[in-house]
Specification:
The structure holds 2 protein chains of 2 kinds.
Chain A (H helix, E strand, L loop, with lengths): L3 E4 L2 E5 L4 E7 L7 E6 L6 E6 L5 E4 L2 E6 L4 E6 L8 E9 L2 E4 L3 E6 L1
Chain B lengths: L4 E3 L2 E4 L5 E6 L6 E7 L6 E7 L2 E4 L8 E4 L6 E5 L8 E8 L9 E2 L3 E5 L1
The chains are: A mainly beta, B mainly beta.
């Protein structure tokens, strides 16, 4: 049973464009929603996170939009750069651990 | 300071053999997690330690998998009678407190290949 569904699986964006990745979850008890970025051969690294009492959080070019009623949240990368090319994972917190989505492989073309 | 360190970075073993994977968390981090990441998938939770004790081992797939953290710092993931399906990247993460109070810091993983 997938607790968090992530889409799309892959995404190609032109430099300067907006990258949007979506996640949907089932359990309303989840209370923390981070996004992780992973480069090949490296472990995931926390990018940005949000709690359910906030509908949007922005850090630099990265924004999380959170829709509690729809049980969905998304990552927006503004002015996407080739250096943003990586795999992105959403996650949800239940108990003391994070459950991750399946990942989105982003390629930003120069 | 140093991040989470995992050794070895790569391990190739034959089916049926025993392996140990080591994790050195960030100094002072009391929470330690093991995750497994198969190719093209997200990390999958295996076990969580708070201090020396396994607070949640519900993600361990079967009794061939075991993990210890005897002094509340270094942890070892042990896999007995390895199978080809165990091939994956095993990730360790630590945090000062369990999330969301503090973020998880991941190591670069141990790539295990069972032939």
């Amino acid at each position: 049973q997938q607790q968090v569904k992530q889409s799309p699986q892959s995404l190609i964006v032109q430099k300067g464009g907006i990258s949007i990745i979506n996640c949907a979850y089932e359990n309303t008890a989840f209370d923390y929603f981070p996004w992780y970025q992973q480069f090949p051969g490296k472990g995931p690294a926390l990018l940005i996170a949000i709690r359910p009492d906030v509908s949007e959080k922005k850090e630099g070019r990265f924004t999380i939009s959170f829709n509690k009623s729809a049980k969905q949240f998304s990552l927006h990368i503004m002015d996407s750069q080739p250096g943003d090319s990586a795999t992105y994972f959403c996650a949800v917190r239940g108990g003391n651990m994070l459950t991750f989505g399946g990942g989105t492989r982003l390629m930003v073309k120069p | 300071g140093a991040g989470v360190s995992q050794t070895p970075s790569n391990k190739v073993t034959e089916k049926g053999k025993y392996v140990e994977l080591r994790c050195d968390p960030i100094s002072g981090h009391t929470a330690l997690y093991w995750y497994r990441q198969s190719l093209g998938q997200g990390p999958e939770f295996l076990i969580y330690f708070q201090g020396t004790g396994a607070a949640d081992d519900s993600g361990l797939p079967n009794d061939r998998f075991f993990a210890v953290r005897p002094e509340g710092s270094v942890s070892t993931l042990k896999i007995q009678r390895t199978e080809r399906g165990d091939s994956a990247v095993y990730l360790c993460a630590s945090s000062l407190d369990p999330p969301p109070n503090s973020p998880l810091h991941f190591g670069n993983g141990t790539r295990l290949t069972v032939t």
